[in-house]
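Here's my example:
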Amino acid sequence: MVRKDAALKFDTSFDPGYGHGIDVAADVRRITARNPSPFTFHGTNSYIIGRDTLAVVDPGPDDEAHLRTLLDVIAGRPVSHIFVSHTHRDHSPLATRLKERTGAAVLAEGPHRPARPLHTGEINALDASADTAFVPDIALPDGALVAGDGWAIRTVLTPGHTANHAAFALEGTGILFSADHVMAWATSIVAPPDGAMADYMASLDRLIERGDRLLLPGHGGPVTEPRNFMRGLKTHRKMRERAILERVRTGDRTIPDMVKAIYSDTDPRLHGAAGLSVLAHLEDLVARGMVSTDAAPAIDGIFAPA
């Protein structure tokens, strides 16, 4: 899930090219599923890697038309591996059917799980977006290197958007499939309990340090200046944190009041996700002793300066 924001310079000039494979790098083709929404932009990007025996990154939603396009682009060539970045329903469900058609092994960090246990009485507002049936054939630890036919992919664990989020580096090329952690068109939603802001920021720092030259995300077009863009994302998150602290210090006590003030120019359809993003910041601020609340931080909690 994602949210547009005017604080960063986003690139929304993206042609999804539905029904076709688009060359985005040497031996890398992008296929965009036709599942546009305020959270997915024009749709979910799947990537096919290789020339003879292939790999697929993020097969996408369980959609018949998208499966047909993937198989058309695969064009009868063998597929050895299906990599899944995380278990939201716009990324992982088609892995099962694609495996049935190709015999490829499915690889991911692991099944879906929250970033923290649910608090007493808490309901996970994101249950409907989670592919809880997904189980990979092979669980990928951080740094795992999988060699294929003319390509090698290294796992870079990037928890934050979800607890099991992973990026995949195309070894020796400077290309990173960044999934929903970093996208050119919008910021990633970090929504508890599935995601955690402290994890997201640590993962962002890790990707900045890597110095990749090109990021191919799960939605929208490439990030062509990754380090500068990710530094901008980090600055944006710090600005959002300061805005939330200011709202708390000036008297806002509830998340809806903070969202109303901070996200006044945001599509109202995204206000629910914005509230969860504010909660993610508040969880982090409470953990760092900068904001107080009577119980565990919650979407309906009451917050005050520490």
Q: What stands out?
A: The chain has six helices and 16 strands. Helices lie at 64-74, 95-102, 197-210, 226-249, 255-262, 271-287.
